Amino acid sequence: MTTPTASLLPPVFNGEHYHIWSVKMKAYLRGQGLWQYVEEERQPPQLGPNPTLNQIRMHEEEASRAPRALSHIHSAITDLVFTRIMACETTKESWDKLRKEFMGSDTRRNMQVLNLRREFETLRMQEAEKVKEYVDRLMNIVNKIKLLGVQMPGSKIVEKVMVSLPERFEAKISSLEDSKDLTQITMTELVHALQAQEQRRLLRLEDANEGAMLATYKGKSMQGNYRKATGEKRGKERSNNQWNKAGGMRNFPACSHCKKKGHAEYKCYFRPGIQCRACKQFGHIEKVCRNKGE
């Protein structure tokens, strides 16, 4: 006897997110061919007189389908949830009990739908938000409304996306209006067109940023070179002009002591009143003394 694989096991409901579990469980029961016994509480036909063995076998198979569907529901819920439906005898009664317990009454469900519709109508795409992020938020609300039993037409969702886009998509919307019938465009086509526009805009922004960074780098480099050249020029000017200042070599007249230019008289090495520390004579300093060695 083969054991069922994990993919064939029903989804387990622990009391949270009933709307998700109900969709999965409905698909599971349909895959097993048992959903009609939950939805309609279908009963097997009665056997006629003198049934054949094949008719008896088919009748037994049909009669076992409703209890099998109920068994699948029991195995798909935890013990805490099972206490809510343990008194229910039929599959439909158990399913409706779970729906009432975890989805609320029709009044409460209608209020939930009304709140979700209001959120759907007021939702707007943010300026810095991407198209996919906004569409995901929008479709999340739509899916919640569908789980509550209310269907929303695809054309209304497309219209909602187009009227709630930021100003940067105005050119794309105008292009779509000129080239296509917006009443026939699908949500997938619209999202792909908007994403293409968004990608082109991002590429242009990246190119503009790279150009600005390159221009800034060149400007700083040229400014640095200019400052360097200016500094070198100023240094040369200072070096060239230091001899033209007051007290420079070219501006001094000939010294009255040594008859040479380029220094002031009070700094001359051959002043009459100065005494040499080497030979003790007057008229010169030790640096230019000829008798210093002796």
What does this structure look like?
There is one protein chain. The chain has 294 residues and is mainly alpha-helical. The chain folds into three domains: 81 residues, no CATH class; 93 residues; 40 residues, no CATH class. It contains ten helices and no strands. Helix 6 packs antiparallel against helix 7. The chain is rod-shaped and about 160 Å long. The N and C termini lie far apart (129 Å). 9% of the residues are buried. The N terminus is likely disordered.
Short overview:
This protein has 294 residues and is mainly alpha-helical. The protein has helices spanning 18-31, 35-39, 53-75, 79-85, 91-103, 106-122, 131-147, 154-163, 170-179, 187-241.
Q: Could you say which overall geometry the principal axes of the C-alpha atoms support?
A: rod-shaped
Percent helix range: 55-70%
Number of helices: 10
Distance between the termini: 129 Å
Please count the beta strands (DSSP E, at least 2 residues each): 0
Following the backbone from N to C, one meets helices and strands in this order, namely: HHHHHHHHHH
Largest sheet: none
Strand content: under 5%
**Averaged pLDDT, please?**
78
Structural class by helix and strand composition: mainly alpha
Domain count: 3
Pick out the low-confidence regions.
1-6, 243-249
Q: What is Rg? A: 49 Å
